[in-house]
Amino acid sequence: MNSKNQISIIGGAGHVGFPLGLVLSSKNLNVNLIDKNVEFLRKIKSGRSPFLEEGSDKLLKSVLKKKKINNSTNLKDVQNSKYIIVCIGTPVSTKLNPKLYSFLNFFKQLKKYLKKDHIVIIRSSVYPGITKKIYEIIKDKCKNLSYCPERIVQGQAIKELPNLPQLICGFSVSSKKESMFLFKKICKKIIFTEILEAELVKLFSNAYRYIHFSISNQFYMICKKENLDFEKIRKIMRDGYSRNTNIPKSGFSAGPCLLKDTMQLSSFYNHKLPLGHSAMKINHNMPKFIVNELEKKYNLKTKTIGLLGLAFKAETDDIRDSLAIDLKKILEKKKIKTLVSDEYYKSKDNINKNVLIKRSDIIILSTPHKIYKKLKIKKNKILIDIWGFFESKKN
Length: 395
Ligand SMILES: NC(=O)c1ccc[n+]([C@@H]2O[C@H](COP(=O)([O-])OP(=O)(O)OC[C@H]3O[C@@H](n4cnc5c(N)ncnc54)[C@H](O)[C@@H]3O)[C@@H](O)[C@H]2O)c1
Description:
It contains 13 helices and 12 strands. By secondary structure, the protein is α/β, with parallel strands linked by helices.
């Protein structure tokens, strides 16, 4: 039986589904998080967030206390909901094409439990045209399909969701109206679009960010060749010159979304996306570039290298597609003694950051977690700060 207050979120223990579930349930809506990840669901049930997400611990405790959030591993449980929000992953293959088969197959499974008055909302970042294909799969059971892409930055969803305009498009008047009704509860502004427009808005946004970051990484490489400090040059570029205000810092541009969505876009355009491919080449080459630069100056076989940070970006414990991990693998393959420390991601070889600094000859800041600002690194250590994080302390 469908109840107006019941929402199922599939992928509800994930980085998109979990914070969305928290925010919706905090608006007095009953939310069921459906996920295959039993361990994450167990954590959520016990009041602990499965990963770092600002503000989530407090909100989770409050919605658990009010009995507004449940969880389940059984897709069949969508039958008890009115709204079904799909937040599962949309990865690309090693050949950089989207894995459409498993995504479409998921909707074939979901279809078994759909009824005509369900509202199905796709939240994942999808390959353009896929929403229409999904409609073709489910339409004889349910015509209410919307695409409402998630646009938060990972780790900040609870803060961002109320402030970001929500894009809504769909195949029926009901799907658009009901999606608006739902999202109006958590955000102020709704923007209606065509389906292909929303699919492209999402991919263009991530590809734009990824390409944007690669520009600074390319400049960083040029500076290194000339023994110059890119962060100092960037500061001068922006000083009183508003046209350069938005130039980003250099750094490891990685993670599960930016590259993946750039490649979804490339695949959609028959892999004729030279900007996207150049960005991938530049960004992905950063770890190798750093090791090559170090090898030009030092005999690395006699040095211990310490990697400060393993997560793909600051203030997260997520190592998915992290370039810090790539860097670690390169060093280990070359049999260079490598130590690692991360504030939030704890692997078995994780050591304390101060111990790492003490024991390393070369310290590479691979993830700029804020807490590292307070570190005291002696002048006799070689510090590689690709992020322009320590600025004056830089080597
Ligand atoms: N991570 C982000 O910040 C972000 C932001 C915007 C959009 N997105 C997009 O949202 C989607 C999800 O990304 P994510 O980072 O949350 O991924 P994630 O891996 O953190 O979460 C996906 C969750 O779905 C679950 N899952 C997968 N298949 C399932 C199934 N058949 N049944 C039940 N559960 C299933 C997984 O166990 C996992 O917990 C992707 O398309 C991504 O590109 C992500």
